[in-house]
DNA sequence: AGTGCGTATACAACGGATTGCGCAGCACTT
DNA sequence: AAGTGCTGCGCAATCCGTTGTATACGCACT
């Protein structure tokens, strides 16, 4: 149970709407913790009931009204409490990796095609993160060290994946060349 | 819904008990897909009802009896079907990363201690994977390319994390030196 | 006029996942 | 003699998460 804490962390710097949070989860933080808007709205509702967050209603023109959430004292206290206790191990669900593990039954061409498509997404993400890192580096590095470190993690992650993808491609192409030749 | 497929992949090579699978999920595959024994037993039950897997009861001496599961034809067909359709995006839940992102509210010493403990685990895992990779490399590389690639992923992942950890340590130590000096 | 996209919020239903508990025997240590 | 840890299986409750659906307005495109 800790989508709540991810939300509290995001609200720590600035107030945000559910929609804003959803966008952040889809981008930067999404690499490390993901959530859909339904989940976020639900959790914001719960947090609000428990007085961890507070919102003000902001009418808008041309756009639907929104609710801007911010941390309450109780929310900040809860966040500090959570930060102190050890985090659980990281969990991942990478379906593509499972497919590679079961690769002997798969069609190599299909796997290669999927690999390319995933690699493309990763490269785009890498570019986004690198641009972001540079911007953070140029402005005050000290104020947002934590932000910077988060982005660095994203960069290293993408690079590691892409390097692995090269190895996979090499092995698979080798294999497919074999089977084509036979 | 695809713990089922991870299980089918594991059963593809060899028959295994629920307990065996749980160990595999805790180790090698665990980096990419995790599951507890309760989940595994439940899923094996469902798979068995649907005739995707089949088990034989094996009495043992000195240990509890066990059920050794293996794929049926239907299970293999389902696996092949699943391998063809594109995998969803990888999902992660890394609580420690969330903590780093919210680091400005955290106690630097606590974070550093946790970083060390996680780094230790990662280093151990890295050693295990590297040993495994070497063994696979020495025996026939071609038979278990897929297995080898899975392990490679684990290695690259650990290395990327450890590199990131170095960056984090550097930043945090810098910070803590500042605050100690002031 | 109709279609699709972006902003913004929300409910309902189902299924997947975690947590807590329980049983059972053997081996090894303290 | 009691405690700890490993092998092995399983149920029940609850919570988390996904998917589907809904509403509402403005803007741009065809």
Automatic annotation (TrEMBL), chains A, B:
Residue intervals of the Transcription regulator PadR C-terminal domain: 92-172
Family annotation (PANTHER family): TRANSCRIPTIONAL REGULATOR YQJI (PTHR43252), TRANSCRIPTIONAL REGULATORY PROTEIN (PTHR43252:SF4)
Residues annotated as domain Transcription regulator PadR N-terminal: 7-79
InterPro entries: Tscrpt_reg_PadR_C, Tscrpt_reg_PadR_N, WH-like_DNA-bd_sf, WH_DNA-bd_sf
Protein name (database record): PadR family transcriptional regulator
Pfam families cross-referenced by the UniProt entry: PadR, Vir_act_alpha_C
């Amino acid at each position: 149970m800790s989508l709540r804490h991810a939300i509290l962390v995001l609200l720590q710097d600035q107030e945000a709407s559910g929609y804003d949070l959803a966008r952040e989860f889809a981008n930067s933080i999404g690499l490390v913790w993901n959530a859909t808007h339904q989940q976020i709205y639900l959790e914001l509702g719960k947090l609000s009931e428990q007085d961890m967050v507070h919102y003000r209603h902001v009418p808008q023109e041309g756009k639907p009204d929104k609710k801007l959430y911010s941390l309450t004292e109780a929310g900040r206290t809860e966040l500090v409490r959570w930060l102190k206790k050890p985090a659980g191990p990281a969990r991942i669900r990478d379906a593509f990796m499972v497919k590679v593990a079961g690769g002997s039954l798969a069609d190599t061409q299909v796997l290669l095609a999927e690999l390319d498509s995933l690699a493309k997404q990763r490269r785009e993400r890498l570019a986004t993160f690198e641009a972001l890192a540079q911007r953070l580096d140029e402005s005050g590095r000290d104020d947002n060290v934590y932000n910077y470190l988060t982005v660095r993690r994203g960069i290293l992650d993408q690079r590691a994946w892409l390097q692995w993808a090269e190895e996979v491609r090499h092995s698979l192409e080798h294999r497919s060349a074999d089977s084509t030749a036979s």
